[in-house]
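Incident review: delayed structure delivery

Summary: a single-chain prediction request sat in the queue longer than the usual turnaround. Root cause was a stuck worker, restarted by the on-call engineer. No data loss occurred. The affected request and its eventual output are reproduced below so the record is complete for anyone auditing the incident later.

Affected input:
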Amino acid sequence: MGSAISSTISMGLTYCACSSASSICNACLGQTSPHTSGRRRSVLLLALAVLLALTFQYSLAPAILGDGNSWWNVVRKTPGVGKRVFRGWTSGCEQYLPDDQQGGSDEDKLSGPFGQCAGNAGVYRPTFFSFLFFTFAAVASYLRPSLNREVWPAKYSMYLLLVVASVFMSNHPWFTGVFLHLSRVGAGVFIVVQQIILIDLAYNWNDNWVGKADSADRLEWGSGKKWLQATIAVCSSFYVAAFIGIGLLYHYFKGCGGNTAIITMSLIGIVAVTVVQLSGVDGSLLTSSVISLYVVYLGYSAVSKNPHGSCNPLLAKENDPYDIAIGLVLTALSLAWTGWSWTAEDRLSGDNVKEARSLAKSGNTFRRGQDPVLDLDDPLLEYNDADRPPSGLALGSGGDDDVLVSQGSDIWKLNAILALVSCWVAMSLTGWGSISGAVGGEDGDQIHNAANPTVGKVNMAMIAVSQWVALSLYAWTLVAPRLFPDRDFS
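Output delivered after worker restart:
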């Protein structure tokens, strides 16, 4: 009797536990309804990869190398496990350990390039498998979009199992070999794609507000004035914020040639693209103001990565627990937010962009009211013949899933962007795979540490490069129509 009661209670508790776990999964991962894209769950997996990368870099790697106060001591004492893991995580890093430190103390191994190499290898493990996950997801969702919102508990379980298995894998050849070079290429591609998306959004923003002004004027002359005033107000605000930002950068990041060069080039770039835009008929001042403010942001991001203590007032103290916690949390949030913001549906799809369509299609039979895009109530369009539309252009939005391409066809782009973001995360946390030396090295330079996870000369240089990629791409959109007037750049 007692065993039966005990068995019943155990079954009840098991059922409650399973139900609770299911509810938690649904709450965190979202429902698998046909109206969801799986974006939230995809970005959540990226955020998990970022957290694991930081944990591996600043907790697990030092523990494996011999941090005497770490929790890894229990695993290290397991026969065959400790040595295997140590050899795997230090594979390819021996070259960074001076000859007089071969087989030296644990503190010698934890500090300097040797410890940094092992920490970088820790970052590559979760980001490598997130890259693979999103790459396969992109292919699968291209073939069948609904796969991106299905079986997420199994996907998470598989990813976590692969990451756990990677702890026992060797750095070479997959992590410090193949993925290191692959992620450098992927991160570079993401930088370019990032700039293209932003420029396209800036143009679409201007076109949207100007289009609303034109539409309002067609209904009531002068009613579109408010949209034009809003455009001018936003444009002015962005330019004021940009120039104030330049002034603040000169004030707080002065005294170093590298910082001054980046800030000055930012100012020159802003003035140059604005002059080019005002000298022609292409582009818009609102778009230029958006790019200008973004350039200032990139300039700030670059100088804030300066590893020289006297040049960067934002450097946190390495041994301060508060600074370490703040540094890790802000880094995790910013990297995860990058994945979330750059995979928004309106950035990956053209469904909400107004399309110009000809209203005079020779050889086609037209019935007013039967074309959902051309069924317009426009006072300037006069239908003289019910079977033929007037000549001209109509603006139509692709909001009808039955007429235009479904949003599901763009889901593969979400996974492709997240695969590139995985590469970019790996490069941001490791200084693009560079081994810089010990913290507090020559001339006060510092490498990335737990308090400053993304600080480093290489990160600083790459952000400066991305700034000029953005300026160059935008400048090209302004001058290309002038150089090739016979080509359509719309």
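Verification: The radius of gyration is 28 Å.
Action items: add queue-age alerting; document worker restart procedure.
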